[in-house]
Amino acid sequence: MGSRSRNWESNTAIQEGSPKFAYILAFFSALGGFLFGYDTGVVSGAMLLLKREMNLNALWQELLVSSTVGAAALSALAGGYLNGLFGRKICILLASSIFSFGGIILSIAPNKEVLLFGRLVVGLGIGIASMTVPVYIAEVSPPHLRGQLVTINTLFITGGQFIASVVDGAFSYLSNGGWRYMLGLSAIPAVLQFLGFLFLPESPRWLLQKGRSQQAHQVLMHIRGTENVEEEYDSIKTTIEEEEKESGGGPVLWRILASGPARRALIVGCGLQMFQQLSGINTVMYYSATILQMAGVRDDRMAIWLAAVTAFTNFLFTLVGVWLVERVGRRKLTLGSIIGTSASLFVLAVGFLLSAHASPPVTFHPSDPTFFNSTCTHYGFCEYCMLDPNCGFCYNENGSTILNSSCEHVNPANTEEAASGRCSNTTQESTDAFWAYNYCPTTYSWIVLLGLILYLAFFAPGMGPMPWTVNSEIYPLWARSTGNACSAGVNWICNVLVSLTFLHVAQYLTYYGAFFLYSGLALLSFLFVLGCLPETKGLVLEDIETLFSTRLCTCDTTDGQKVHYVRSNYGTLEAEDRISYISVSSKY
Ligand SMILES: O[C@H]1[C@H](O)[C@@H](O)[C@H](O)[C@@H](O)[C@H]1O
């Protein structure tokens, strides 16, 4: 094990190679991200049709949404093992087969039980893809493009969510079976990815790790578009040899926890994924239709199409992230994004707070006998009425004045109408009475809308993609699959937790309380990133491990600099202490 050094000038050999092939690889891999976005996004529109056609109660609706995310959490964790054993290519092929199978099952499902099975299958595909694709892209990309190419995967996730909302809008006009197309169409990109990947190479880093040196060398030349890959090849090979000598036996997770740099990388990776979800992205996305209704969009179809605009905003600003990641670096992009995200969550909360204070009172008590048996009669203001999932607010409007307002029981089979009375669809009067479920009519809705747009504009370029991008690069090769599996698992588990608890949190803390909480959590993540996230821009993957050699909370010293590291061996010391890092260049 000799001492080893790399200098940045010599990376020009890598940079000179044609990156075209790297883009092709990134495109086919990122179809996995597209399916992740499509399958998590499409269900809300499909549910509108499904609940009517299959008579789904709230529990079944909840099951069909959460089963996919839950299955994704489990398969992301298992994906680490599969990745190490079979390689990235086989795992991506596996994920695309699972996606295709799931899509077909969903499109022909005869009943809700088969639907649930299909959603579980699709979730298994999402979990494997979510942890494998960023790793594969990072391992095949040249260092100067790596951040951008991995961020393209998140662009595809948000693109998938956008296309899903357009498909939802388009097929919502089909009175029968529209959901079959919505859920089944995902099989097309899945088959495309499967076919494409049959012809694409395995990651050269994984090949080298498995001792398939000749194949690794060939793949590296192929993807770099040049024969001049000796330096990169040697560098990967030496690192793997060193790692093999240094690593003890036992399960990889145990070795990660026992090794200082890998453990710190795992804390940073999992922390980033946790904070991404705790800043409420999926709640905001899911809740966007209601926010738009608050802002006065009453037509259901219109709300579906405007939700597509929200998803498009998320996509558009992720594109800004793709553009910025190699210019400003991961650290500054994430920090800037968090400040904006926290501030916009604050604006959202203030909008909800003002709406709550101006919440219209209940002024009308219908004489309908079913009305008297309802607990909804207890509420004196719309604010309390809407926080009870069993009730909704029914009112007439004269200009901006609310008239004849009552709190009434919701139709359990369809929350878009009251169970009985003038806001149910069984009465003639329903035409001039408005039904507000989950929200209150308010003149402050523009603040909420502004908060929503600002939120997406700040979240999407940084906190959306960076946790995935950073995780794909911070672990040493031996720990990469397991590290990414754990952090992706944390992402999915926090995703389930936040979405399942949102309505309860809102019931206890009110909507504005919930958004103030998310805003505070975002501030907490600012401190975490400020103290713990080093800049990885432009570094060779094999060098990144060195950034975690010192205690966490000291990383900001390297911010904005490209550092040249020299790794030297002092024989008798512990593995992590044996590595000294000498900055010899900070000219950037
Ligand atoms: O990075 C992605 C992206 O921001 C998506 O919009 C969101 O739904 C996912 O949960 C997240 O992991």
UniProtKB/TrEMBL annotation:
<keyword id="KW-0472">Membrane</keyword>
<keyword id="KW-0325">Glycoprotein</keyword>
<keyword id="KW-1133">Transmembrane helix</keyword>
<dbReference type="InterPro" id="IPR036259">
    <property type="entry name" value="MFS_trans_sf"/>
</dbReference>
<keyword id="KW-0813">Transport</keyword>
<feature type="transmembrane region" description="Helical">
    <location>
        <begin position="485"/>
        <end position="505"/>
    </location>
</feature>
<dbReference type="InterPro" id="IPR003663">
    <property type="entry name" value="Sugar/inositol_transpt"/>
</dbReference>
<comment type="function">
    <text>H(+)-myo-inositol cotransporter. Can also transport related stereoisomers.</text>
</comment>
<dbReference type="InterPro" id="IPR005828">
    <property type="entry name" value="MFS_sugar_transport-like"/>
</dbReference>
<dbReference type="Pfam" id="PF00083">
    <property type="entry name" value="Sugar_tr"/>
</dbReference>
<protein>
    <recommendedName>
        <fullName>Proton myo-inositol cotransporter</fullName>
    </recommendedName>
</protein>
<feature type="transmembrane region" description="Helical">
    <location>
        <begin position="21"/>
        <end position="38"/>
    </location>
</feature>
<feature type="domain" description="Major facilitator superfamily (MFS) profile">
    <location>
        <begin position="25"/>
        <end position="537"/>
    </location>
</feature>
<feature type="transmembrane region" description="Helical">
    <location>
        <begin position="444"/>
        <end position="464"/>
    </location>
</feature>
<feature type="transmembrane region" description="Helical">
    <location>
        <begin position="511"/>
        <end position="533"/>
    </location>
</feature>
<feature type="transmembrane region" description="Helical">
    <location>
        <begin position="337"/>
        <end position="358"/>
    </location>
</feature>
<keyword id="KW-1003">Cell membrane</keyword>
<keyword id="KW-0597">Phosphoprotein</keyword>
<dbReference type="GO" id="GO:0005366">
    <property type="term" value="F:myo-inositol:proton symporter activity"/>
</dbReference>
<dbReference type="GO" id="GO:0016324">
    <property type="term" value="C:apical plasma membrane"/>
</dbReference>
<feature type="transmembrane region" description="Helical">
    <location>
        <begin position="58"/>
        <end position="78"/>
    </location>
</feature>
<dbReference type="InterPro" id="IPR005829">
    <property type="entry name" value="Sugar_transporter_CS"/>
</dbReference>
<feature type="transmembrane region" description="Helical">
    <location>
        <begin position="90"/>
        <end position="110"/>
    </location>
</feature>
<feature type="transmembrane region" description="Helical">
    <location>
        <begin position="149"/>
        <end position="167"/>
    </location>
</feature>
<comment type="similarity">
    <text>Belongs to the major facilitator superfamily. Sugar transporter (TC 2.A.1.1) family.</text>
</comment>
<keyword id="KW-0812">Transmembrane</keyword>
<feature type="transmembrane region" description="Helical">
    <location>
        <begin position="265"/>
        <end position="287"/>
    </location>
</feature>
<dbReference type="InterPro" id="IPR020846">
    <property type="entry name" value="MFS_dom"/>
</dbReference>
<feature type="transmembrane region" description="Helical">
    <location>
        <begin position="302"/>
        <end position="325"/>
    </location>
</feature>
<feature type="transmembrane region" description="Helical">
    <location>
        <begin position="179"/>
        <end position="200"/>
    </location>
</feature>
<dbReference type="InterPro" id="IPR050814">
    <property type="entry name" value="Myo-inositol_Transporter"/>
</dbReference>
<feature type="transmembrane region" description="Helical">
    <location>
        <begin position="116"/>
        <end position="137"/>
    </location>
</feature>
